[in-house]
Amino acid sequence: MTLLAASAAMPARAQQTVIQIENVRTEYARVLRAQPVYQTLRATAMVEQCEDGVVADGPEPKRGLARVVGAVKDVLTPNSDDKDKAADQAQPVDGCEVVPTEREFRRPIAYDVDYVHHGVKYRSRLPYDPGNRLRVRVSITPIVSGSR
């Protein structure tokens, strides 16, 4: 009798249907354009400016990007030693005065990427420049309704 009960329970389990939720694969899309999105940072530094445009009694002035990075670093990283140095440098020399100078620089923080996959154009914001092609996740999911 227990054998009969066990065989009656088995067909109920065999009739259960398992539905696969989605089918996923990766492919490559062709990148049409990757445009950087910039963050603009501003920093104000106190600079000694003389009548002839030269900083007196100081180390040789930095030029270009090193000058901008140094000014931003000085403004963004407060340190007690730097405050003492700034107090020493803030005293003007004859014919010179300390003036605030605002500097600005930009850095890329993301990329707006236009790409095409199977003839359809898409746009996404990515944290990096993908180059000529972009790996994409393709997911196919059937729509299952209650009535057929």
Summarize it.
The protein is built from three helices and four strands, in the order αβααβββ.
Give the strand line-up of the largest sheet. 3-2-1-4
- Which overall shape is indicated by the principal axes computed on the Cα atoms? elongated
Count of strand segments: 4
Helicity, in percent?
10-25%
Overall mean pLDDT: 77
Uncertain segments = 1-7
Individual helix count: 3
By secondary-structure content and strand pairing, the structural class works out as alpha+beta
Separation of the first and last Cα atoms? 40 Å
String of helices and strands: HEHHEEE
Main beta-sheet annotation:
4 strands, antiparallel
| Rg over C-alpha atoms, rounded to the nearest angstrom | 33 Å
Structure keywords:
148 residues; alpha+beta; 3 helices; disordered N terminus
Would you write up a description of this structure?
It is built from three helices and four strands, in the order αβααβββ. It is α+β, with helices and mostly antiparallel strands and 148 residues long. It has a four-stranded antiparallel β-sheet with strand order 3-2-1-4. The chain is elongated and about 95 Å long. Mean pLDDT is 77; it is low at 1-7.
